[in-house]
């Protein structure tokens, strides 16, 4: 079946799809706030600009759309019938970028939690947020152990510092920050 709208109409529709303040993000943020969690949103200083950053727990949350991030086995992820190669390549790039950002955040000692759009239906929302809460507690314990290991083992601390500098340099290069903000961004990421 051919496309029923013109390329100009398709462009207009696609241009209105946003990456920030989506409804799934608002649902998760509202529920976390209601349960007493405080956070930052869309922190550009971290790799991948996480949707929600919880510094107290050293955790970040990405709320992924099932279609855009290729959620395997989900009914919301269906490859369009037109321009198939473009969409497969686009989704594959998104998945690769997500994995790279997760690796970078892991090196920086941040725990990555992924929430899929399909997990936020009314019947699943409570169990999804309960899972996120459990992962936040695990992240906090993991970071406390990491800090303890850094204090006790000088070689480990030096290696971690080297890895941090490499990742921070990559993030800084990607952000193209002005010089007066570079120091601020570096300190925020290292904390």
Q: End-to-end span in angstroms?
A: 53 Å
* DSSP E strands, number: 4
The top level CATH class name of the domain at 17-141: Alpha Beta
Structural class by helix and strand composition: alpha+beta
Residue windows where pLDDT falls under 50 for at least 5 positions: none
Radius of gyration: 19 Å
Please indicate the percent range of residues in DSSP E strands (runs of 2 or more).
Answer: 5-15%
CATH topology title of the domain at 17-141:
Endonuclease, Chain A
Continuous helix count: 6
CATH architecture of the domain at 17-141: 3-Layer(aba) Sandwich
Sketch the topology as an H/E string, one letter per element.
HHEEEHEHHH
3D structure, described in words:
The structure is a single chain. The chain is of the alpha+beta class and 191 residues long. The chain has a domain at 17-141: VSR Endonuclease (Endonuclease, Chain A, 3-Layer(aba) Sandwich), CATH 3.40.960.10. It is 56% helix and 9% strand. The chain contains six helices and four strands. The chain has helices at 7-15, 23-34, 84-107, 125-152, 154-175, 179-190; strands at residues 40-41, 52-54, 59-64, 111-116. The protein has a four-stranded mixed beta sheet, with helices on both faces. It is globular and about 65 Å long. It starts with 6 loop residues before the first helix and ends with a helix. The mean pLDDT is 84.
């Amino acid at each position: 079946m051919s496309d029923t709208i013109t390329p100009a109409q398709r462009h207009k529709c696609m241009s209105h799809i946003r990456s920030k303040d989506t409804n799934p993000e608002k649902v998760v943020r509202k529920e976390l706030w209601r349960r007493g969690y405080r956070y930052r949103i869309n922190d550009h200083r971290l790799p991948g600009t996480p949707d929600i950053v919880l510094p107290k727990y050293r955790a970040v949350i990405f709320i992924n759309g099932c279609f855009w991030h290729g959620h395997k086995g989900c009914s919301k992820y269906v490859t369009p019938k037109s321009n198939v190669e473009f969409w497969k390549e686009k989704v594959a790039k998104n998945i690769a970028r997500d994995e790279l950002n997760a690796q970078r955040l892991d090196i920086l000692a941040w725990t990555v939690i992924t929430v899929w759009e399909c997990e936020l239906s009314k019947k699943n929302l409570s169990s999804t947020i309960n899972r996120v809460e459990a992962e936040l507690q695990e992240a906090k314990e993991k970071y406390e152990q990491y800090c303890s290991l850094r204090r006790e083992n000088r070689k480990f601390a030096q290696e971690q510092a080297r890895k941090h500098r490499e990742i921070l340099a990559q993030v800084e290069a990607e952000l193209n920050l002005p010089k007066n903000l570079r120091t601020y961004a570096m300190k925020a990421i290292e904390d």
